Model the fold of this input.
Amino acid sequence: MRIDVPRRGIVLVVEDEVLVRMLTVGTVEDAGYEVIEARHADEAVAILEARSDIALVVTDVDMPGSMDGLKLAHAVRNRWPPIKLVVVSGKSNLTEADLPSDTRFFAKPYSVGALVSALSSLLAHEQ
Done:
């Protein structure tokens, strides 16, 4: 069921597994956000370089390409500091010390409600 709320904030979802990406994109869209998809970090960086309207990046850690999601999160924090970050992983159990500042981490499988709550909290000012 679609939640009818005004669009706010553009979220970049970076996930190499198609079904997981589709589920995440659907969850984020149902929460009222516009979503852009990337299959890996290299594609995500190209999108970030081309757009200035991305408010938040949700990235998986384990991905193919020149960098994993954790390195992507650090790159985003360094190059685009205002962008909010959510890092997810089914294999890595990361600590706060592993993550860039102001980053939320969710171990897979994560609660859809917890993810939506984090998005709402992180993007509260993006209305």
The CA atoms of residues 16 and 102 lie 24 Å apart.
